[in-house]
Design brief:
alpha+beta; 5-stranded antiparallel sheet; binds 6-diazenyl-5-OXO-L-norleucine
């Protein structure tokens, strides 16, 4: 072996050893990890026990972080317990790793937009997004009307409200009941269980969603969809009110990490060719105005919701989700961002880093 190649090989080996040492020395033993059957990891791949330890460690590290505030522009969200904190990570082989509260449901909110986009991608392909919503970050708030006016509803994306309501209007089915069934079946397939709407959240948002109705009217007026804008807004409000735990969200994220197939049910939810299209919009616009800093720190396609959920996808490696309602000024869950950044940096989840370097360039501002 030439000496440069030798050097590179030994650097790679040292990295693997450091990764393993970090995962084991930084983190203590965990009951959850003991339950997992041992399997031989690929070189540089963390073992099941390592992953469980990292998840436990993230929970312990950020459990007492009290920054942020629940969303309150939807009155029901202000009433959710701010101490609720659950973490779940699912690998493509269907193993799930959890810590904290994984039984209490929060409303999925904007994370729903990802899966309605998946429905339309699957049924109609990517071009309808280029034609009707755009796939660009707007650089403005998720419910900006200025962004619509600026380009007459073009050059936005399916993860801001205008693009998301348009996407809901593009779901096939005809009647409101058929469209809803199409959306609900899609979410259930990604999550691998039957999800239900949190009716108190739906009612609360339906009573206060005048701004979204205005957004829908504008998108309709600019010709981005046909049909009834108020019906589209109502179905969109319902989709945002679907109740999910961190486990549900992690399974949904893992379906994307697994190329579009649910890792437990093995049901294909999205053709593999469309998965990168979906992940690209999550990467550029998933965390509102802070999508850039999030991508800079983690490299992970992700999506947040004002209910306190955050999902992130390390393609081929895992999907992770955290639920914790207090949000920062940009509207993203504080603990969820910190926990996922931590987990991904230890596990080497950054898809933009050639070797998935553990403890790589990610860093807080
Ligand atoms: O339409 C709304 O304002 C909420 N149902 C969802 C907002 C949200 O989660 C922010 N997302 N980008």
């Amino acid at each position: 072996m030439k000496s440069a190649a030798k050097h590179r090989a030994s650097v790679r080996l040292a990295r693997s050893v450091v990764a393993l040492a970090l995962a084991t020395s930084l983190l203590g033993a965990s009951a959850g990890a003991q339950k997992l059957a041992a399997r031989t990891p690929r070189p540089n791949e963390p073992s099941a026990e390592d992953i469980q330890r990292v998840v436990d460690q993230a929970y312990a590290r950020f459990k007492n972080l009290k920054e942020g505030k629940n969303a309150d522009y939807i009155p029901a969200l202000a009433k959710v317990d701010p101490d609720l904190f659950g973490i779940a990570l699912v690998t493509p082989d269907g193993r799930m790793y959890t810590a904290g509260n994984n039984t209490t449901e929060v409303s999925i909110q904007s994370i729903s937009k990802v899966f309605t986009m998946a429905r339309v991608l699957q049924d109609s392909g990517g071009k309808v997004f280029i034609d009707n919503t755009g796939v660009d970050a707007t650089g403005r708030e998720f419910n900006s009307i200025v962004a619509i006016e600026d380009k007459k509803g073009h050059e936005m994306n399916p993860l801001v409200n205008a693009g998301a309501i348009t996407t809901t209007a593009l779901v096939g089915g005809g009647s409101a009941a058929e469209v809803w069934k199409n959306i609900a079946d899609t979410y259930d397939g990604f999550a691998g269980r039957k999800l239900t709407v949190l009716e108190d959240v739906y009612k609360s948002e339906a009573e206060t969603n005048q701004r979204n109705r205005a957004i829908a009217m504008l998108m309709y007026a600019y010709g981005h969809f046909k049909g009834d804008p108020l019906q589209a807004t109502d179905i969109y409000t319902r989709q945002c009110s679907v109740g999910v735990t961190a486990k549900d969200l992690a399974m949904m994220a893992a379906t994307l990490a697994n190329g579009g197939t649910n890792p437990v049910s093995h049901k294909r939810m999205l053709d593999a060719q469309h998965v990168p299209q979906l992940l690209s919009v999550m990467a550029t616009a998933g965390l509102y105005d802070d999508s850039g800093i999030w991508l800079f720190n983690t490299g992970l396609p992700a999506k947040s919701g004002v209910g306190g959920g955050l999902i992130a996808v390390s393609p081929g490696k895992w999907g992770v989700a955290v639920v914790s309602p207090p949000l920062d000024k940009a509207g993203n869950s504080v603990r969820a961002q910190r926990a996922i950044e931590y987990i991904s940096s230890v596990l080497g989840g950054n898809p933009l880093a050639a070797g998935g370097e553990p403890m790589s360039a990610s860093g807080r501002r």
